[in-house]
Design brief:
Order of helices and strands: HHHHH
Amino acid sequence: MKRIRLEKGLTQEAFAERSGFTQQYLSDLERGRRNPTVVSLFELAQALGVDHVALVTPDEEAMVEGAPRRKSDAKPLPRKPEKRKSVRADRRKG
């Protein structure tokens, strides 16, 4: 979406006015922090003057072999072993 917005010469603010969505929502979409509903996708495409398919077609950047497409596609970092707490037996003098 950002690539198309920039090709059209629109700032996020101008795109927000044109689309009716907030600038913050559009920023979150462009950063991958939010996902639009199908209805929102159509409205965004209409505001950009493109077909909705253009918004879901991966950019060349995303097509680079081995590059994760989403954060969820990235390999997780190895976990550090947890420190074990020593459990001491409660010793009472009796």
